[in-house]
Structures are given as structure tokens and as C-alpha cells.
Amino acid sequence: MSALQTVALHLSRHHQTVTCAESCTGGLLAAALTEISGSSQWFQQSFVTYSNQAKSERLGVSPATLLAHGAVSQETVREMAQGAKTLAGADYALSISGIAGPTGGSPEKPVGTVWFGLATPQTCLQCTVLFEGNRQQIRQKAVDYALNLLAEHLV
């Protein structure tokens, strides 16, 4: 069973919901979640917050966090996930912020750096992965990783 199927089955059976807050994936995660027929039972909305201003205005990410740590950081994805979960009234929230390239990388945060946040009913965790590939491949790998992350932490 795929991660997406696991997520859909679990959320349906437990009457739980998920939302997402995306930056570098630009809505691809929401599109993947809604590929499943009946997803409206457990997925009602998402947030595509590409700019720092949108992250702050729509999700409540602190401008101080963005200034101190940048959009692609543990702190930012934590605030993105927590903000999305609260605003959507969801049981789970996934957040993604990264550098898909081909430009925008730095020695500290090279192209392919993606941070993930997952707010669950009990906690909020964050992790980072450095993906290889072109822009399209990095974005798709980020979506796949996020779905697997959620599937592994369903309660």
C-alpha cells in the first residue's frame, strides 16, 4: 500500500483531517492528497505560501523567525505547520519549505535542501533532507517524502 493510500485509509477510518502549508512545492502536496476519491472527507484546505509575506500573513510565521532563520529552516516549517493546523482546525498539518533550484542555493542551504514540518495531535516535529535532481524532481521527491512522513506518524 502506498503512503498516500495509508494516509487516506487511516484518516477516513479515524475521522481525522489533514491540511498542508507549502512553499517550494507550490500546491503539489495538496494535489497529491486530492488524487484519492473521497478525500474531501479528510482534506478540506491547504495553504500555498510562497513568499515570506504570505507565510507571515496567512500562517502567522513570525517575521522575526524569517529574519533570523530564513524561510528554509526548522523554525519556519514548525510555525507553518502549527499555523496551518490551527487555522484549518485539522488533526495533522504538513509543511514544506525548500530550495528547488536551479537558483537560490547557498553553501549553507544548497539547492535541494528541503525542510518538513509535521504537526500531529500530540507534537510538532521537523526534519530536513537534501534531495538531488532538477527542480521538478526535487519538488516531487519532497511531496513523496512528506506523504511518507505523515504515514509514519499517524496516531
From TrEMBL:
<feature type="domain" description="CinA C-terminal">
    <location>
        <begin position="5"/>
        <end position="153"/>
    </location>
</feature>
<protein>
    <submittedName>
        <fullName>CinA family protein</fullName>
    </submittedName>
</protein>
<dbReference type="Pfam" id="PF02464">
    <property type="entry name" value="CinA"/>
</dbReference>
<dbReference type="InterPro" id="IPR008136">
    <property type="entry name" value="CinA_C"/>
</dbReference>
<dbReference type="InterPro" id="IPR036653">
    <property type="entry name" value="CinA-like_C"/>
</dbReference>
